[in-house]
Amino acid sequence: MDSIALLIAASMNAGTLLALAALGLLINERAGIVNLGAEGMMLVAAIAGFATAVHTGNDWLAFAAGMAAGALLALAFGLLVIWLNTNQYAAGLALSLFGTGFSAFVGLRYTQEKLGPRPSFEIPGLADIPFVGPALFKQHPLVYGGILLMLFLTWFLYRSRAGLVLRAVGESPESAHALGYPVRKIRLAAVVTGGALCGLAGSYMSVIYTPLWVEGMVAGKGWIALALTTFATWRPARVLLGAYLFGFVTMLQFHLQGQGVEVASQFLSMLPYLATIVVLVLISSNANFIRANMPASLGKPFFPGS
């Protein structure tokens, strides 16, 4: 039972960094913008956060640095695709490639650096409950922050006027523009916010989840986060559940190895990516279901006055 509790806790921890990035990408896509640069943004944020933690010793400053790095890259991406009308997919891929190379270059001097002892967290009283306490109530505050973010986005998108406007921009930017809403500014704000959340995920990975800096350490998690938005049919609650599911698959390999299960480590390592492919194939087999849930103007440029 103790090992199962630890597996649940580790799954939530691993799922949190996917959830933060995927919720950020969901905001982008609800506004009609596809950003394929999540991998690059997370890598740049990871080295920005890790370097800040090394020099300041403050994890929260590291998170702020990661968010700033992600937001800055997203701002550049947004200006390119929203104001200069460059292709969203090409610009996103370029951002991902840039982030991979830039983070590797900047991170050369940090590969041997180590952070101080990581703080432990627990909720007094609840953490002492057998099984439930170790599984749910000894997490980093950002794990609970991811849950609160999901609840806020659910309220924001479906219960607030600003969320309704954001969804309207993603569904029909021409209609939103005709009603007087600044479509381009709204889309840019959504892109920057999404980039900041991807940055938070990247810095969480290098400062808390790992914690160290290794070139290419995001290792495809940005792409998994991107797939999660489709897997969740653009619903925040489903994004969080999907992130925990992929977190469970990721941590299952270590759990099985710890239990002495004789399975090739290469097969276990590929499980999260195999699960991503299987889920996308299953969802994509029903095109009508995707079209019914996908923002109508996703990936389509908007030209005011056209």
From TrEMBL:
It is a multi-pass membrane protein. It is found in: Cell membrane. InterPro entries: ABC_transp_permease. Keywords: Cell membrane, Membrane, Transmembrane, Transmembrane helix. The chain crosses the membrane at residues 6-26, 33-54, 60-82, 89-110, 141-158, 188-206, 212-232, 239-258, 270-290. This is ABC transporter permease. It comes from Roseateles agri. The lineage of its organism: Bacteria, Pseudomonadati, Pseudomonadota, Betaproteobacteria, Burkholderiales.
